[in-house]
Amino acid sequence: MPNVTQGPPAALRNSLESFPNPQVERDYTIQIKVPEFTCLCPKTGQPDFATLKLEYIPNISCIELKSLKLYVWSYRDVGAFHEAVTNQIVDDLVATIAPRFLKLSAKFNVRGGIYTTVVVERRNPDWKGPTS
Fold first, then answer.
1. What is the mean pLDDT of residues 89-112?
2. Which among 108, 112, 104, 90 is positioned nearest to 51, based on CA atoms?
3. Between 131 and 132, the higher pLDDT residue
4. Measured between alpha carbons, how far is 29 from 10 in angstroms, rounded to an integer?
5. Lower CB density within 10 Å: C or N end of the chain?
6. Which band of pLDDT confidence, cut at 50, 70 and 90, is reported for residue 6?
7. Half-sphere CA count of 123, side-chain side, radius 13 A
8. Of 35, 44, 42, 122, residue with least CA distance to 87
C-alpha cells in the first residue's frame, strides 16, 4: 500500500516552470485540460484516474506546458486522497505563477459506484476582477 504524501518530491514540484505573461496589462483566461491524470488510492494502492481542468487568469507569468505535463506525471506513483492532491496541485501552481485567479476541477473516474469532483479556487486578494 502506498504512503499518503503531500504530492511529488520537492524537486519535481520545483520543476514547474513559467514564462512572462505577454499581455500583463490585460485580464484573459487560459484553459488547460489534462485528461490523463493518475495517482494512487492511499487505502488500496489502486490507480485513480481523473481529468483535470485548469482555468486561470495570469498575472506576471504563465505556466509552461511541458513542465506542467512532467509535474502531473510525477503523481503516477503517489498515494493521495482526491481532496489532498487537488489542493496540492493548486498550491504548487499558485507558488509558481501567482495568478490573478486560478480554478482547478479534478473529475475522478468512478470507483465503487462513486464519482468525485473536487474544485479548488484561489484569487489574488489584490485583483478586483471584471466589473461587468
1. 96
2. 108
3. 131
4. 28
5. C
6. low
7. 6
8. 122
φ, ψ (nearest 5 deg) of residue 109: -65, 160
For the ranges 2-11, 13-22, 34-43, 84-93, the lowest mean pLDDT is seen at 2-11
* 61: exposed, middle or buried (Cβ count in 10 Å: 0-12, 13-18, 19+): middle
The strand pair at 30-40 and 61-63 is best described as unpaired
pTM: 0.89
Q: Which residue has the higher pLDDT, 84 or 3?
A: 84
Domain boundaries defined on the chain: 27-123
The whole-angstrom separation of Cα 94 and Cα 18 is 11
Q: Is 32 helix (H, G, I), strand (E, B) or coil?
A: strand
27-123 CATH pick, 3.40.50.11810, 3.30.230.10, 3.30.1130.10, 2.40.160.20: 3.30.1130.10
CB 30 within 8 A of CB 62: yes
**In this structure, which amino acid lies at residue 119?**
V
